[in-house]
Amino acid sequence: MKTQLNPLAAALSVGILWALCLFIWTFLSIQWGYGSSWIDLMAEIYPYYEATAAGAFWGLLWGFLDAFIGTYILVWLYNFLVLKLGK
Fold first, then answer.
1. pLDDT tens digits for 9-52?
2. 78 SS3 class
3. Model's pTM, two decimal places?
4. Under a CB-based contact definition with an 8 Å cutoff, are residues 35 and 87 in contact?
5. CB atoms < 10 A from the CB of 26, how many?
6. Are 48 and 6 in contact (CB under 8 A)?
7. Helix axes 36-45, 7-32, angle to 10 degrees
């Protein structure tokens, strides 16, 4: 039996989860300084992202887009390889 995944469902799930993680971690960093070095690392990757309220919303946007696109490509590739290698 060839097991395939739904790319859209997976991408939405991971995109939402990663966006919420960035959003929450940003406010934890603002309030208690938790994970500030990690926030700085993410700020190098995502434009306009920083440990501010506005930065949290940028993290929400960029985090969702990044995880959505990456997961969609990963699941599409997985399904492609299941079909090709499952002969």
1. 999 999 999 999 999 999 999 999 888 899 999 999 999 999 99
2. helix
3. 0.89
4. no
5. 27
6. no
7. 130
Q: Which residues of 35-67 are buried (b: 16+ CB within 10 A; e: fewer)?
A: eeeebeebbeebeebbbeeebbebbbbbbbebb
Q: Which residues contact 62 (CB under 8 A, 6 or more apart)?
A: 22, 45, 46, 47, 49
Distance CA 87, CA 84 (A): 6
pLDDT in the model for residue 1: 62
**6 C-beta neighbours (distance < 10 Å), count:** 11
Q: What gap in Å lies between CA 13 and CA 54, rounded to an integer?
A: 24
